[in-house]
Amino acid sequence: MFVLEMLKTKFNKIFYLLVIFIILQTSDLFGKSTDSFDVDKFPKSKISWKEWILKTKNDLRNKNFKDNTLNYLDNIKFNRRIIELDRKQPEFRLTFNKYLKNVVNTKSRKQINEQYNQNKTLLKEIELEFNVSAKILSALWGIETYFGKHTGKMDIISSLASLAYDGRRKEFFTKELENALNILENDHFERNSFKGSWAGAFGQTQFMPSTFLKHAIDFDGDSKVNLFKKSDALASGANYLKKIGWNNNLQWGEEINIQLTDELKKLAKNKVYKDIIFWSGNGIKLNKEYEKSKLKLVIPDSNNNECYLVSKNYDVILNWNRSNYFALTVFLFSDEIK
Ligand SMILES: [Ca+2]
Question: I need a labelling partner for 282 at 20 to 30 A (CA). Which of 6, 44, 99, 192 fits?
């Protein structure tokens, strides 16, 4: 999974696991599992894996899937490891500062600048067409897959089928499996290259199959939508952000120094947007220009050591991945492009 892959090279295994915990905890895909998880009690399905495959194939045949596509389900195996990952209870949280430093550091700072410069023509072309910041796209690309280097090695069909069979989020993963088969049926890329994260996200921008069907596009003009290629992946990312409300005229926001009062903490908790006059009135000196846009206060962890004011583009990034740590890090990483 994206951030993790890029961290793996640098940090030891324990630390790597901590990052997994925080991502599991903060992503909207994974609701908190119960405290009493017993690995021997799954899968929840009453029928055997083989029976389940037959049943699923029948269900999908009724939805007019071709036999060739349904045959992809024949040779897949139930992957117990995926269910363990799905059940992992986050043990404790990283501070935001630590999370940020894991993603934004000397090496990645150099990397994002190199990638931005090397791919400037493509990124600027996409920015012009979709009106989505090339720097934000670069940061997302870096965080998701370390600029396309780590797109994940799990077989997407097997992973989604295991999760659907297991049943904790049966409807969601059954639908995603159907979406994934739909993608294969349309012949955008080879069955064997359909690999990604254990939870079903794939390609250089780590789209779930449903996101692919809604927002992915062919940008290089070969009539295939192939998110394993950067041109299609980055343009699809931009298309997605545009459709969910990205406003390229807005600054994302900035870190601020502020004495936190109960009133300010309450505003942060309730996610209330206020105008610049309000924030200036609270003694905050802003470095960027916001004109009439409203900003809200984000305090990423309970240490209260870092505070940020963010614009409505923050909610757009949260729509991509419902994690405050993720969204702030995308913005701060994008600011590293000089
Ligand atoms: Ca294409």
Answer: 99
